[in-house]
Amino acid sequence: MPLILVVDDEVNILQLLKYNLTKEGYQVISATNGSDAIKLTGEKAPDLIVLDKMLPEMDGFDVLRILKANRQSAPIPVIMLSARNEELDKVLGLELGADDYITKPFSPRELVARVKVHLRHGLMLPAEEGPAEVKEIRVNGLVIQPEKYEALLDGVRLELTQKEFELLHLLAANPGRVFTRDILLEKIWGYDFDRKSRTVDVHISYLRQKIEKDPANPEYIETVRGVGYRFREFH
Description:
With 235 residues, the chain is of the alpha/beta class. The protein folds into 2 domains: 1-117, Response regulator (Rossmann fold), CATH 3.40.50; 135-229, Arc Repressor Mutant, subunit A (Orthogonal Bundle), CATH 1.10.10. The chain is 37% helix and 20% strand. α4 (87-95) links the parallel β4 and β5 (100-103). α2 runs parallel beside α3 and α6 packs across α8 (199-211).
């Protein structure tokens, strides 16, 4: 049974989320501040974290930075909650490693649906669009291990978030194929995300910083202007 950590200083929000997530069969633990959230993450190793941006003492972005800087907690999917609907906040949250961003007030059903998406294991690829078996990919110093949800570059393990890994695997498993932003949103996020957002671009940018020697002149992930992205074919 997946364990979910909910972090929010508003008691009514905590109760609402606990009720809806427990009803879906999840175990739920909670924290009302950043320090307790970090401590619980280390002790309980939750499968997913729902993290409010506005917290006392330490805000959600600071908590996110600490979690993503730690090798053990970095892979844990994080859904950010915020009362602010500003694009800058969303972009910053995604750049720091959040996997999703939901604006308050929100529908509990929508949040539960997004939790389910982020807890799914493996890529949701139709057979004709990806390898039938989960195979290790090796290309030009880059090694992608789907079963372990790990990637290595020149023998060094990359610290990737869940969504960064899934993007990398999807593109690398289909070298030369161009994926539009809409298709990437559908396949990686698995629901009708805000198509005007920069979610895909931000994740690609952050991924390039981790795998490319020169992110401004990418070797692996190429931009097809006006269309989307593709993984370079190496011969």
